[in-house]
Amino acid sequence: SQQGEEDPQALSIQEGENATMNCSYKTSINNLQWYRQNSGRGLVHLILIRSNEREKHSGRLRVTLDTSKKSSSLLITASRAADTASYFCATVQAARQLTFGSGTQLTVLP
Amino acid sequence: EAGVTQSPTHLIKTRGQQATLRCSPISGHTSVYWYQQALGLGLQFLLWYDEGEERNRGNFPPRFSGRQFPNYSSELNVNALELEDSALYLCASSLLAGSTEAFFGQGTRLTVV
Question: Which residues of B touch A40 (CB under 8 A)?
Fold first, then answer.
């Protein structure tokens, strides 16, 4: 079963705009990770945020984690056409298994 | 440093046959995950191996099985193939299971006809 659920399922924005994707999960986690997948290929790790962290930045990426609400958000600032991809959140529970959500398909229009 | 490699990249089988997919993790990584991704859908967890042992398996029938070898490479076997087994099968490896990022291979595209 899916641990994380991304919202929205699909997002279409203009180049230069910010894109925000959300992830909700059900059980306590050790950490939460965001990945990106270009069409039909392997996933690439973007950022990992631990359960005791609230915010993390990496380049144009900003991730927040609210453990009380069991939710996370991924913000991509100043989006580019090359950011077009599917974005997945993945949670790690005490069992150390990596479980993925259903993903958000982001389309950045030039 | 070589990344996670999967072979073959594409595999076409007929219904009822068996398929074997292979994964070589990044050197030093002992944890290997397998996922199934049907077209346009999310990743469904299949199997997790760590230090040579199966740690967990997802909600898949027993005809999905695998193993991890002493060199930490892994094999996924699918017996009695069904049409709905057609999917992208992704392998990922991790240095410290769950604590560090996972690195993915490019996947094996399995088509069952």
Answer: 88, 107, 109
The beta-carbon neighbor of A95 closest among B56, B88, B104 is B56
- Whether residues A43 and B4 touch (CB distance < 8 A) is answered with no
The three state secondary structure string of chain A is CCCEEEECCEEEEECCCCEEEEEEECCCCCEEEEEEECCCCCEEEEEEEECCCCEEEECCEEEEEECCCCEEEEEECCCCHHHCEEEEEEEECCCCCEEECCCEEEEEEC
Count of residues making up chain A: 110
Report the distance separating Cα B103 and Cα A90, nearest Å.
13
Residue A1 pLDDT greater than 50, yes or no: no
Residues of chain B scoring pLDDT < 70 = 1
d(CA A2, CA B42): 9
Beta carbons of B42 and A88 less than 8 Å apart = yes
**Is pLDDT of A2 > 60?**
no
Structure tokens at B35: 């996922």
Nearest residue of A to residue B88, measured between CA atoms: A40
Considering CB atoms only, which of B42, B55, B88 is closest to A100?
A: B42
Taking only the tens place, the pLDDT of each residue in A90-101 is 998 877 788 898
Residue of A nearest to B89 (CA): A42
pLDDT value for A3: 64
Inter-chain residue contact B101 with A96, CB threshold 8 Å: no
